[in-house]
Amino acid sequence: MTKIKLRDYQRESIDSLHKWFSEHKEPLDSPLVSIPTGGGKSLTIAALISEALQQWPKQRFLVLSHVGEILKQNHQALMDYWPHADTGIYSAGLGHKDKKASVTFASIQSIHKHAFNFDPWDIIIIDECHLLSPKGGTMYRRFIKDAKLANPNLRIIGYTATPFRLDCGLLTDGDNRLFTHIAYDLPITRLIKEGHLVPLITKGGIQKVDLKDVRKQGGDYKKTDLERAFYDDNLTNNALDEVEAYGKDRKTWLIFAVSIKHGEDITDNLNNRGITTELIHGGTPKDERTRILTEFKSMKIKAVVSVEVMTTGVNIPNIDLLVFLRSTMSVSLYIQMSGRAMRLSPETGKKDALVLDFANLIETHGPIDTIEVRSKKQKGEGATKNQPTKECPDCRAILSIFAKTCEQCGHEFESKPFHDAVATEAAILSTQQKPESFHVQSVSYATHCKPGKPDSIRVDYICGLKIHSEWICPEHMGYAQTKAVQWWGNRSPAMIPATTDLCLDYIKNHGIKEPSSIWVKKNGKYKEITGYEFESSTTGANDLASRGINKVSQDYPSQGALL
Length: 563
Known about the structure:
An 8-stranded mixed beta sheet has the order 4-3-5-2-6-7-1-10. Strands 11-18-17-14-16-15 form a 6-stranded parallel beta sheet, with helices on both faces.
């Protein structure tokens, strides 16, 4: 029996999957679990498998990943959680080709042609599933097709920190989607608030790499053009002056570069400054990569420059400085890069991680914890809450962040020379943006309907001439439902009714406590409610104490199992 205790959200994610499977019986339905980098996906997967096999011992699991580091990490997590588990590894790179175990951990590169050489699997878990392309001819797609021929009742579960891709948007959208629903979605702010991740901070002045002549290719910036942009006006060298100044009190630096040539120049530059630096890219030999990562983790190496690697599957908690010297249009890549520095490192006394962004990523995509992804009806993957815009100080017109002149009033924006190479101070976490307080005059409640989703409660707070709204989701799963339970618990001693209609009926007949003030914070061109202030005593229709209400009658089925 394991002594490892799951965190609350890890338990919630497993329970949400159980609930999801109880409601979705069709094999074609496949759930997705979204847990931010550093949230312990490996342990969550281990606990899920352990509980399932101890209840249904004859089930067979396959856990797929694309790199050896993730494969080993997932396998070790299950062995630590359940030492008696019947496990095997199938990976040419790791020198194992086990076929008979109840739980097989495999690299997709090794196993993709061999689905029929194994006894059929009941459940396949795909880690870092955002790497799956919607195209039909990939290794993952061909393998899953064969595995389903072997077992038509096969169920697929995906795990990722970013449930979207640049080429198709949400992984649950599109005709060629593999995953049909997000069963659990954990916000990164909760992990920071509960002390499971460190916050990110930014320093420096306002800076934008000049991307106006950088062309697009394959949905992202063309590499040759992007490389040139980071060499223009000696930008990279000047940026490294800034990195050296800010990094002197930081223990471990991770720098993202555009290309191998760019990475080599950064590596040489820093080594010439006396800063021990190594370069890792897709062509780095395996043994050399292992050596570099081992020395990086033990802090024998101060800095590592990464070219298109180290965005997933790397667990180096002591990283406390991130440097963005490459731009990308991919929101998921931006989030994955940011997540590399958020792990806890008690050994080094790490309290936060510094981000120096010379690539305009933060101002383009916005805070990493407030990004919303376009649906399949919209183009691309980009954030909808944090569009790259700015406000004209004269006429208040909303303009492109790159605009030099206001189209409406002619105001000319002061431009900073790009060769200043000063990193942006834009907030990389929404918690770094300051909220504003509003007095609440009244509150209204209504049903909010969204096609394909359970109904939710729209709550409007009337604050003078302004109305601030939020949506409470008692019928959703995962964190949205947990948030609804907490929201209700702050307003009523009764347990939350099970449905939106029952909640509204209860509010109409019994009332709930309402805040006297709310705190509102701006995220891009949208605003969100971040806090509430309740008076110590209340009067009027919503004063529950005066009504003597202390429990929900049987007419209001509750979500008591979640409390």
